[in-house]
Amino acid sequence: MRLLKIGIANINTTVGAVESNTDTMIALAAAMTHQGVSVASFSEQVIGGYPPEDLVQWRAFLASQRQQLGRFAAATEASPLVSVVGLLVPVGGQIFNVAAVLHSGQVLGLVPKEKLPSYNVFYEGRTLSRGSAYMELDAGGDRLGDFVFDFEFGRLAVEVCEDAWSPDGPMRRRCYSGAEIVINVSASPYRVGITETRREMLATRSADNEVTLVWANAVGAQDGLIYDGGGYVFQNGRREMTAPSFREGFSTCVVDLDRTVRLRTENTTWRTDCEGFLEECEPMRAILSEAPVADSSSLPYPTPDSDSFFLPAAGLEASAARPAALDELHEALAFGLKDYYCKTGAFQCLGVALSGGRDSLLTLLVAWRAAALIVEQTGEGDAAALIHAFYMPSRFSTEGTRDAAATICAELGIDLRVVPIDDAFERELDATRLMLGGAQPTGITEQNVQARIRAQRMWNWANSSGALFLQTGDMSEKAVGYTTIGGDLEGALSVIANVPKTVVVALLERLLEVHGFGGIAASLATEPGPELTTAQEAESELMPFAVLDACLWLYAGEKLAPVEVARALCSVFPERDADQLRTWALSFATMFSRSIYKWVQAPLALHVGSLDLDRERALQLPVVQSDEWASDSDE
Q: For 74-218, where are the E strands, in sequence order?
């Protein structure tokens, strides 16, 4: 047998903090050496931090990473540890995202990433060059290209993140070339449901290639992206280790590489495929059939197993999946807020405008958990004292939300200051009438005035207190413009702006189940609405939030046309009137396209799903557009 101890290192990097990031790498490398680790994997771009975005255009930023790689090599010269480290490397006018293999103080080679994602939150194809099969370049004296590496323990191959997400990635040819262990350095952002997707994909890659696959992920938050860290070791498809998420440090496991070779030997299919690869073959010929296929026009749209497109099923078979996903989501949001607060170093406390409604209550609970993480990390202060909540009632505020705000703050030990806005509201209405030449402001304007007074007061307080003012709006209302520019759309960081309303409610229900807070129960007992006019109910003014969120997923996520959304809604909600569903679907599409100008002005938001409304991140849509393409046609 050939036993090998593998280490997965998770480091909470900061973009640009090349010395600090490398200091942590050196410390972890020493600790892993002490524990007898043979091969250690760090994460993608661990030296420079990820994602650097257009910072890659500064040559000094690239040069600093190479310098720190040399410092890491020198620091590990006396160690037998083989290290795999992610960084950016320029060659001429090209920049490559590479995994560097180091041993005994030497950089043995730099292997570039081949699959450059330019979808969703990724823009690597815009600034980086891709590697290719059998490439070999000189990168300032180091070899950069498509290599495998031989050591006493066996043959090693390395790759970077997205390379594993394609079945046609470099892993296949490297395994057919004799690699027994593949290390993938990654920076894969968290989103709801990604854990199971990653695990299944990596297990499949490991099984398909009959290889020991090590996957090491970045941990920490950068701007609005959250990286959950952790990692896996799969041997020929079997999971051998799962590294913990949302934690710095390292994890180890021992594998027998002879098992990988034995399973390859036993698998005649793999051996046959390997033989075919090693021969020069013509591409497979495509065969065209011109015969008609079955008519699909009357097929029902496949409905989700869950009652939510955004969450796992809640049935008996998946009884543990949904609570776990909700717990993970709450932790991810808090983790993202914590890192934003700590890494920027610009704030002294957190501020929430607390209405007592669902959105602001959930934002407060995320801030409550984030404050605990901040105190845990810094070792200073009191978590509850870090948070300041403000209840700013008007004549339209209800007793239910007022009680919810007061109750939750009392339960969390957070100071709640009540600052009414009625007097300021009247002054602003008078000023508006003056500007209108005596005419009366519209009803919508009267609502917006209240939201803007609250936002202005929060900014004034935040500026004077050094506070991080948290924007509390959710994804559903943001999508259809049920927001006020200069009002509830204001803040320094949007905490739940990519969390749909149905998920907001599910999270609150889960937190109520876990903690039993009366303030959550009080909030859930109220009708959702902004309370900017008498007896205002959001679902009456928009549509039921379950329908709205389904429209959001189908239109913005699945990219269905409005009439297709309407048809799908009939399958999702068979008990509802088809004409009403069609009306809602068309209304949603119109509101969505006309609200883009609003949500592009919103603050940076935490990214926690495969769909979000950050124009800089996942869904880049023109602000000025016509919806003629989405006209009411079945063709």
A: 82-91, 94-103, 106-112, 136-139, 142-145, 149-151, 154-160, 181-186, 212-217
What's the token pair of residue 473? 């709006």
Please, which pLDDT band fits residue 168 given cuts at 50, 70 and 90? Answer: confident
> What distances in angstroms separate CA 493 from CA 329, 337, 422, 434, 488, one per listed residue?
17, 8, 27, 35, 12
Please give the DSSP secondary-structure letter assigned to residue 439: P
Element (H, E) at 229: strand 225-235
Instruction: List, in order, residues 6 or more apart from 398 with CB less than 8 Å away.
Output: 526, 531
Please say if the pLDDT value at position 147 is more than 70: yes
254-312 per-position pLDDT tens digit: 888 888 988 888 888 889 888 888 876 433 234 344 555 445 566 465 566 667 777 76
Amino acid at 475: M
Token couple for 324: 């776990």
What contacts 35, CB < 8 A, 6 or more positions away? 5, 7, 252
Write out the E strands in 266-423: 349-353, 387-391, 416-418
Alpha helices in 292-385 (DSSP H): 321-344, 358-378
User: What strands lie across the sheet with 416-418, from one edge to the other?
Assistant: 416-418, 387-391, 349-353, 467-471, 493-494
Please give the Cα distance from 83 to 73 (Å, whole number): 9
- Structural Rg of the chain based on CA atoms: 27
pTM of the predicted model, to two decimals? 0.81
Are residues 98 and 110 in contact, defined by beta-carbon separation less than 8 angstroms? yes
If you count them, how many residues does the chain have?
A: 635
Predicted pLDDT at 635:
42
* pLDDT tier, 318 (very low <50, low <70, confident <90, very high otherwise): very low
Q: CB–CB of 520/512 below 8 Å?
A: yes
Q: C-alpha distances in angstroms, 626 versus 154, 556, 561, 583, 623? A: 60, 16, 14, 19, 10
Which residues make Cβ contacts (< 8 Å) with residue 358, sequence separation at least 6? 474, 501, 504, 505, 508, 523, 524, 528
Q: Is the dihedral of CA 71, 77, 78, 82 positive or negative?
A: positive
CA dihedral 471, 476, 477, 478 (to 10 degrees): 60
Write out the two tokens for 101.
């293999």
Q: Which domains does the chain have, with CATH numbers?
A: 3-277 (3.60.110.10), 321-542+600-612 (3.40.50.620)
Convert the pLDDT of each residue in 480-531 to its tens digit.
999 999 999 999 999 999 999 999 999 999 999 999 999 999 999 999 999 9
| pLDDT at position 613 over 90 | no
